[in-house]
Each structure stands twice: as structure tokens, then as C-alpha cells.
Amino acid sequence: MENVETLSEYSKDQLIELIEIYAKNWLALDGVWFQSVETKSGMDEAMYHDAEAWKRFTVIEAKRIKEFLKLPEQAGLEGLAQALKLRFYASLNEDKIEINGNELIYTMVRCRVQTARERKGMPFHPCKSVGIIEYSGFAKTIDSRITCEALSCYPDITDHNCCCKWKFVLKEE
Fold this sequence. Notes:
Layout lengths: L11 H30 L1 H27 L6 H9 L9 E7 L2 E8 L1 H8 L8 H15 L3 E8 L10 E7 L3
Antiparallel strand pairs: 1-2, 2-4, 3-4
């Protein structure tokens, strides 16, 4: 391959492939720092730092996606659905979004983090507590009227057909 100096010189297919690489690299970095803290100081300490990181990162991510999509201040559930599809790890996982009235159900059918931990013989990541921070903060940034609750998320699994499931409700004012 010739020496390409700027992203604008890559083909659409190459850029899509690069986005996949970037997403995998980001998720690997997220996992590597977490496992470093987990190994040295234990799961509780790693979860504390994970929660602190997600409190800030999820808002940054949501704001940038919201701006990219040119969503209005109150983007509603349709805006949230669009934004969820553009999250950094969205292309790495298998998910499903269903909107019914003022509710959006987001199902993570297959999660790269949990499947990687399982493959390595590690215990599952107890992601519910951090997931509540992550998804609530993301949704509120897209539209402040949206609330979020975990329907099924490790360690509180209620639906064994998916990795996790979240309910977002649009509270009309």
C-alpha cells in the first residue's frame, strides 16, 4: 500500500475498516487499564475508577455524537436511538433497539467485553453499577427528560438471551 498522509486520501472502505480498528483499540485500552487496577488492587478498586471514568466520558461521547448528528436539545427517544448506534463500541457488539411509545428498550445481544473475559477464563465484569452511570449519563446528555434503568445486567441477570438490557423512558413535561 502506498504511503497515505491524510485520512481524506483513504477510500470509504478503508475508513470504515480504520473505524473498526479504532473501536477495537479503544475497547482494548479500556480493558487493559481496568485489568491492571483489578490485578493490583482488586475488583472493587477497579470498579471505583471505572465508574469515575464513565461519569465523565459518557457525557463527552454523547455531546460529540449529538453535535455530529445535529440533534436538537431535546432529541427524544429517536435521537437516543441514533446516538446509541454511533457509540465508540457500537460496531463491536451486537445490539437491538426497540421503541414503543415513550419507552426504548436497548438490548446488548452480544458484548465483546464479556465474551473476551469468558474466553480468557476471567469472571464476568460486574457492569450493572457502572452501566447505570454510563447509560443514564449518555441518555440525559441526549435529552434531559430521559431516565434509564437496568432490566438485566451482570450480576443481576433476568434475561439469559442477552448480555444486558436497558429501559429508557422519555418523561414528558
